[in-house]
């Protein structure tokens, strides 16, 4: 029998007729009662249904049936479902049904169904309904073969470039404040397409970004949840069921002090907007929000009625419309006959320049472009629909989409209608829809294609027709999520209701009474506040259930009798979600559960013989042991530490096995994976650390892979908490499936000594992620044979001495490349990786390494858009080594002229195997000594693996060695915390225990064992030269980005906020040599030679500009002071500037001079490209200690020169791209403040003033300015740690001044949280002593353990111009 078992047009007719024929020819002992004794009735029923099916099929092609025909067709479809349900129940009676229910009532029910069928046939003949089927419409019959696919490159987009450039220009105005821009235009004009193109162009310049769909019905919870899932990465949704306010709090917290870009597509009401905009922080980080809307009123309200922020999108011009239409119909080369040209002009005139309408009509004609009769038919259909000229563009678009929908073949129409089960704006995975369509019976296998593969062809065809649209695309161009255009959704929702195909009920809206039986039911509780369990709905005939809401509102599973598809997204406070009743759902084919509640499954699932897909994204009490015995199970995904039955190997038909836990399953189970010969997708993981049993399991896993010849995807992804101990899998397998498209063997478990030979044989591979011990240029050539590779991640353990060269024409379609190696030496020849868009490089800085050939030929990557760099530090590396490596790296990157985004971060150590001769000689000597002392009988090769460890954990004390903290515990009831350290040198046995008192002072250090190696060599810091790329080589763009001239730019300077650091020696920054100091005190360049580049900040005192010296190109900061100042003030400022020019210290912003231009005072200062630390959080204590140390050095220097700052705060602490922190805004600001407030004791910002400075009654009115600076410093450091002002979350530093001053003077000083280290808590306690006489000096604080630990030295400041 051809065609699917179920369809929207024919209901269950095909399936039902097949079952009836089978019953009539079956032996009597195979047919239960009462069906066996009623075969005569079944025969009559079959004859009537055969005739009815013929009439129904003919009427299904009628384009616009009248009400009588529609009513009859609905009645027939309903009857087909009822009869099939009756047969299924009789063939598979429930265990608790009584004998009586199987006899007389069953016979009566059958008689009723036979009579209904006869009556239905008579009504068709009586009213002569067949006359309406005499002229069937044209239908484009879709095939099962490959369909042209729209990808994420948008190569066929027309007429959008100018709009994209203009919109980016509007987003790129010089505004540090949050900016909202709207795209407004009629439906189908291309607003979403334009927004997507802009989003892809600029998304890399923002720290957080999201592209979400809105809906016409307000659904704020879903909208906020989608934003959160994208800005948090990996599309991880927040826990279900959270109140809107909690979602707002989550969103605000995550976006604080971050630059974000949010696109809200299809906004049609302002209720959701008012809530969403309140959740997005107003900041000065150049954040942007872009919305698309059909309504001008919505656009105006979102943009605060600023018409300049609204981009009005107009329909395409005639030429662009023709280009789009003909490209879709014929391809890029086409010649038209005169008649086709006339028809096309009339069709295009109907489209009105709307791209979506043009694509919809072109998709009808594309499969038969030379069929003149079809063209004429489409033209006439349009004329009939648009014979009235007063239709709005929205109604016209709906009619055109309706025409396109009605021209679909039955199988595509049914698949598309199924999406009406989900809410408007819903985004979905292709794989999910494919499985659900198959489970519903919409798909029938054909030669050489199973149901899933046929369903994928249907999905692709709907994409090509423009009825399903890509929503989210990966870096490789692969579409991950899809959605529906709002007009398409309206059309299929209307058609679904008319044909009683599905019913969607949202309990936040008014519910109309249901007059017909529900076959597919979608229950949603958009507002959990008023949620109640649904009533007055008969659930027994429901075949598919999609439920989203509170567990208390979930109907009892036992009420469903013929359920085939079960999709639950439930949440609540209950301990358990009891689904033990699902074993009664004999017809169940698809089940997906997502919940924050532990799920209880039945003890046995053998009663589900048709189950094809089981996906549970929740905790599970246990998995039934017979789950692997289900005969039709194809897809199994059960998350958590689940032990599957030992019979898993017998489930040979399984195609998908996700989240297979290696640690929880036996080694025998893992070996049996090799028997699952039909497996397509395998995803394994392990939450435990490496052990001997796990090593054996890992060997079994890798060895089993070569037996699975149909695999398309393999992922081995240990959880991040696993230790970095690798297992060599080089000999565990000799080949893998030639059909493999995705291979991810991720660190830190599986490693290959060399690139396996069989990698080059995987010609279909598109994603490869693998760990290698060694990697050479020859290996590059082997991987380059993979012509379909789009994503490549290589983790190389041993730094290579040779340069890795990527040759010409290698990797023709690669779009993402990640390369991690201890030492970076790679080169790109011209035309290598021609489509590469993203490059991710991770490496370590080593002591004394030559970095000249680190990265060559970057300019040859013509399509490269973004580079991400991560620089770690080897144990022997100094801060000067890291700075040198960073400088060389940025010099190499700066050669690329088209780069949109460059992101560089300093992180901890990337694990690597040491193999440099000098290091191995030293280690080998130690090994030999240890081996001899232990009477070793034989010599064996030793490879020392340095496990991943954050540099933040490294400490040292008075013995001069480097230490790593590995544990901490409280002793003596928590009064004296004890920390445990190991020496960082490989195999060194030395350990120490450090006991710290409550105030952060070390009270006792106990050493255990002795060091078996020399101390690490210490190096003097290197000076940056004036042209060093580490400061200004990339033009001061956001996170070190560069850009092609003339390209619209959204970047603004942003300080790095990376919470990572590295270790080195604790020596004070050196002061420039006398010659350099003398040079610094030279006269500043003439003001006329300085050109203003852009404004970088403003405050109460003036505006700061970034200026460039025309002769040398050097950058400065020019502060233009507000107001007119009398001569006394001018002389005082001039004297202060003269003093400040003599201040030569790496931690103090240098003052070059002052200009008096027409009464306007302008001060030339050193330019710090990272901006201030105000509003940023530094949660990593080592990095924060480095910042505190640098500031303390500067304060100590100023205090030695008898200079009191009086206004230390985060906004006066500046940072540059080399992470050098300097003190700014003293001296001149103090003078200006004194002119405004004669009381010298109140100079500065009140929020950071010390208690004795505010309350003059303290200390008898005396004020120690040096101690006041220490208080301000301590409060600033604590604010950087917390990410907020320390005196209460609700108080703030800009609020009620009276309350603020009372809090400073009379409340206890703020403290770090208990999760902070004792050293940091003690350090802050010292700084924030209420009694100023108890506060240490800056010099004394430099000896505190928090800042005295070995850390990288800040570099000395660059020489003068």
UniProtKB/TrEMBL annotation:
Known SUPFAM superfamilies for this protein? Answer: L domain-like, P-loop containing nucleoside triphosphate hydrolases, Protein kinase-like (PK-like), WRKY DNA-binding domain
Pfam families reported in the protein's UniProt record: LRR_14, NB-ARC, Pkinase, Rx_N, WHD_DRP, WRKY
Q: Which UniProt keywords apply?
A: ATP-binding, Coiled coil, DNA-binding, Kinase, Leucine-rich repeat, Membrane, Nucleotide-binding, Nucleus, Phosphoprotein, Plant defense, Repeat, Serine/threonine-protein kinase, Transcription, Transcription regulation, Transferase, Transmembrane, Transmembrane helix
Recorded hits in InterPro entries, A to Z, give: Apaf_helical (IPR042197), Kinase-like_dom_sf (IPR011009), LRR_dom_sf (IPR032675), LRR_R13L4/SHOC2-like (IPR055414), NB-ARC (IPR002182), P-loop_NTPase (IPR027417), Prot_kinase_dom (IPR000719), Protein_kinase_ATP_BS (IPR017441)
Q: Superkingdom of this entry's organism? A: Eukaryota
GO cellular component annotations, sorted alphabetically? cytoplasm; nucleus; plasma membrane
Record's catalysed reaction(s): L-threonyl-[protein] + ATP = O-phospho-L-threonyl-[protein] + ADP + H(+); L-tyrosyl-[protein] + ATP = O-phospho-L-tyrosyl-[protein] + ADP + H(+); L-seryl-[protein] + ATP = O-phospho-L-seryl-[protein] + ADP + H(+)
Q: PROSITE patterns recorded for this chain? A: PROTEIN_KINASE_ATP (PS00107), PROTEIN_KINASE_DOM (PS50011), PROTEIN_KINASE_ST (PS00108), WRKY (PS50811)
Instruction: Enumerate the spans annotated as WRKY domain.
Output: 952-1013
Write down the EC number.
Answer: 2.7.12.2
Membrane topology, record value: Single-pass membrane protein
List, as start-end ranges, the regions of compositional bias called Polar residues.
1027-1050
Where is this protein primarily located? membrane
Q: Which stretches are tagged as biased composition: Pro residues?
A: 1351-1361
Which is one GO molecular function term here?
MAP kinase kinase activity
Q: Which residues form the Protein kinase domain?
A: 1090-1347
Family, per entry: Belongs to the disease resistance NB-LRR family.
Name the UniProt record assigns to this protein = mitogen-activated protein kinase kinase
Q: Which organism is it from?
A: Miscanthus lutarioriparius
């Amino acid at each position: 029998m051809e065609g699917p078992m179920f369809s929207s047009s024919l209901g269950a007719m095909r399936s039902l007729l097949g079952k009836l024929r089978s019953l009539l020819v079956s032996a009597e002992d195979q047919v239960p009662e009462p069906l066996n004794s009623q075969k005569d009735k079944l025969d009559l029923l079959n004859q009537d249904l055969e005739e009815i099916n013929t009439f129904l099929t003919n009427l299904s092609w009628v384009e616009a049936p009248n009400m009588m025909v529609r009513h009859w067709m609905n009645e027939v479809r309903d009857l087909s479902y009822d009869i099939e349900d009756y047969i299924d129940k009789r063939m598979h009676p429930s265990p608790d049904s009584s004998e009586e229910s199987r006899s007389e009532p069953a016979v009566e029910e059958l008689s009723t169904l036979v009579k209904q069928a006869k009556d239905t046939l008579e009504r068709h003949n009586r009213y002569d309904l067949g006359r309406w089927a005499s002229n069937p419409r044209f239908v484009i019959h879709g095939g099962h073969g490959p369909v042209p696919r729209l990808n994420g490159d948008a190569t066929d987009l027309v007429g959008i470039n100018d709009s994209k450039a203009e919109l980016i220009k509007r987003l790129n105005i010089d505004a540090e404040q949050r900016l909202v821009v709207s795209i407004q235009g009629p439906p189908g004009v291309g607003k979403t397409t334009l927004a997507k193109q802009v989003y892809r162009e600029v998304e890399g310049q923002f720290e957080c970004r999201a592209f979400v769909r809105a809906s016409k019905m307000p659904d704020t919870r879903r909208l906020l949840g989608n934003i959160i899932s994208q800005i948090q990465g990996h599309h991880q949704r927040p826990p279900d069921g959270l109140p809107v306010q909690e979602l707002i709090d989550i969103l605000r917290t995550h976006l604080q002090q971050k630059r974000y870009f949010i696109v809200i597509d299809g906004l049609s009401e302002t209720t959701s907007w008012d809530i969403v905009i309140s959740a997005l922080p107003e900041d000065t980080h150049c954040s942007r929000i872009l919305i698309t809307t059909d309504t001008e009123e919505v656009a105006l309200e979102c943009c605060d009625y600023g018409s300049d922020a609204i981009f009005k999108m107009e329909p395409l011009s005639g030429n662009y419309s023709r280009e789009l239409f003909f490209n879709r119909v014929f391809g890029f080369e086409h010649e038209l006959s005169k008649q086709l040209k006339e028809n096309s002009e009339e069709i295009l005139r109907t489209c009105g320049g709307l791209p979506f309408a043009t694509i919809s009509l072109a998709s009808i004609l594309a499969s038969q472009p030379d069929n003149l009769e079809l063209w004429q038919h489409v033209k006439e259909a349009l004329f009939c629909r648009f014979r009235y000229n007063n239709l709005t563009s929205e109604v016209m678009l709906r009619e055109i989409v309706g025409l396109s929908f009605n021209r679909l073949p039955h199988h595509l129409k049914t698949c598309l209608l199924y999406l009406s089960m989900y809410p408007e704006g819903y985004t979905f995975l292709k794989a999910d829809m494919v499985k659900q369509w198959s489970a519903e019976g919409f798909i029938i296998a054909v030669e050489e294609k199973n149901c899933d593969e046929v369903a994928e062809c249907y999905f692709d065809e709907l994409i090509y027709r423009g009825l399903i649209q890509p929503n989210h695309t990966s870096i490789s161009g692969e579409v991950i999520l899809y959605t529906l255009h709002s007009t398409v959704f309206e059309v299929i929702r209307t058609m679904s209701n008319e044909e009683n195909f599905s019913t969607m009920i949202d309990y936040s809206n008014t519910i109309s009474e249901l007059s017909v039986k529900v076959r597919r039911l979608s229950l949603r509780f958009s507002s959990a506040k008023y949620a109640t369990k649904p009533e007055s709905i008969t659930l027994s005939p429901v075949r598919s259930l999609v439920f989203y809401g509170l567990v208390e509102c979930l109907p009892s599973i036992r009420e469903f009798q013929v359920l085939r598809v079960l999709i639950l997204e439930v949440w609540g406070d209950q301990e358990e979600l009891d689904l033990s009743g699902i074993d009664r759902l004999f017809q169940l084919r698809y089940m997906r559960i997502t919940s924050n509640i532990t799920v209880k499954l039945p003890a046995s699932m053998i009663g589900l013989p048709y189950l094809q897909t089981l996906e549970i994204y929740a905790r599970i009490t246990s998995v039934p042991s017979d789950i692997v015995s289900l005969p039709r199970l194809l897809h199994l995904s059960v998350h958590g530490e689940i032990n599957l039955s030992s019979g898993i190997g017998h489930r040979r038909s399984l195609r998908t096995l996700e989240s297979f836990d290696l640690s929880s399953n036996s080694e025998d189970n893992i070996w049996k994976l090799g028997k699952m010969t039909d497996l397509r997708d395998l995803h394994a993981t392990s939450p435990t650390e490496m052990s001997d049993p796990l090593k054996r399991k890992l060997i079994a896993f890798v060895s089993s892979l070569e037996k699975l010849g149909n695999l398309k995807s393999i992922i081995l992804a240990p959880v991040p908490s696993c230790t970095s101990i690798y297992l060599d899998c080089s000999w565990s397998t000799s080949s893998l499936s030639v059909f493999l498209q995705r291979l991810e063997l991720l660190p830190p478990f599986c490693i290959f000594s060399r690139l396996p030979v069989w990698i080059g044989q995987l010609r279909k591979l598109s994603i490869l992620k693998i760990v290698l011990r060694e990697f050479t240029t020859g290996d590059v050539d082997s991987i380059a044979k993979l012509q379909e590779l789009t994503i490549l991640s290589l983790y190389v353990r041993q730094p290579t001495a040779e340069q890795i060269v990527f040759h010409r024409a290698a990797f023709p379609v690669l779009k993402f490349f990640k390369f991690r190696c201890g030492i970076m030496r790679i080169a790109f020849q011209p035309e290598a990786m021609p489509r590469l868009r993203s490059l991710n490089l991770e490496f370590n800085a080593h002591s004394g390494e030559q970095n000249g050939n680190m990265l060559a030929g970057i300019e040859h990557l013509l399509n490269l858009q973004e580079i991400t760099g991560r620089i770690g530090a080897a144990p022997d590396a100094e801060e000067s080594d890291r700075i040198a490596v960073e400088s060389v790296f940025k010099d190499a990157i700066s050669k690329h002229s088209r780069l949109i985004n460059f992101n560089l971060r300093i992180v901890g150590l990337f694990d690597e195997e040491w193999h440099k001769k000098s290091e191995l000689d030293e280690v080998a000597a130690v090994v030999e000594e240890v081996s001899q002392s232990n009477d070793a009988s034989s010599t064996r090769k030793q490879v020392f693996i340095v496990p991943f460890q954050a540099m933040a954990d490294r400490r040292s004390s008075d013995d001069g060695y480097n230490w790593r903290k590995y544990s901490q515990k409280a002793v003596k009831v928590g009064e004296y915390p004890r920390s445990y350290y190991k020496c960082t040198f490989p195999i060194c046995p030395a350990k120490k225990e450090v006991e710290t008192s409550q105030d952060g002072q070390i009270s006792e250090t106990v050493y255990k064992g002795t060091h078996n190696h020399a101390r690490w060599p210490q190096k003097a810091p290197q000076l940056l030269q004036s042209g060093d790329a580490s400061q200004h080589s990339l033009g001061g763009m956001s996170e070190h980005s560069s850009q092609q001239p003339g390209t619209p730019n959204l970047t603004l300077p942003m300080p790095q906020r990376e919470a990572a650091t590295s270790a080195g020696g604790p020596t004070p920054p050196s002061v420039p040599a006398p010659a350099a100091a003398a040079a610094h005190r030279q006269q500043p360049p003439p003001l006329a030679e300085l050109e203003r580049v852009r404004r970088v900040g403003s405050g109460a005192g003036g505006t700061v500009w970034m200026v460039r010296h025309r002769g040398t190109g050097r950058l400065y900061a020019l502060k233009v002071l507000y107001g007119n100042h009398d001569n006394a003030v001018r002389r005082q400022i001039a004297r202060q500037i003269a003093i400040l020019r003599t201040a030569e210290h790496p931690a103090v912003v240098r003052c070059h001079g002052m200009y008096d231009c027409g009464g306007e005072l302008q001060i030339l200062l050193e330019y710090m490209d990272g901006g201030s630390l105000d509003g940023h959080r530094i949660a990593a204590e080592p990095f924060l200690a480095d910042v505190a140390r640098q500031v303390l050095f500067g304060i100590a220097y100023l205090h030695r020169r008898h200079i009191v700052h009086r206004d230390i705060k985060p906004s006066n602490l500046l940072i540059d791209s080399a992470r050098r922190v300097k003190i700014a805004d003293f001296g001149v600001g103090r003078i200006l403040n004194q002119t405004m407030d004669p009381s010298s004791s109140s100079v500065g910002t009140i929020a950071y003033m010390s208690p004795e400075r505010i309350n003059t009654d303290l200390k008898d009115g005396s004020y120690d300015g040096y101690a006041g600076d220490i208080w301000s410093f301590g409060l600033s450091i604590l604010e950087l740690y917390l990410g907020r002002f320390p005196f209460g979350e609700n108080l703030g530093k800009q609020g009620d001044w009276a309350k603020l001053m009372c809090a400073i003077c009379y409340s206890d000083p703020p403290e770090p949280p208990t999760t902070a280290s004792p050293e940091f808590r003690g350090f802050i306690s010292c700084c924030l002593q209420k009694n100023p006489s108890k506060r240490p000096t800056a010099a004394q604080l430099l000896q505190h353990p928090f800042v005295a630990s070995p850390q990288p030295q800040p570099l000395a400041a660059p020489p003068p111009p």
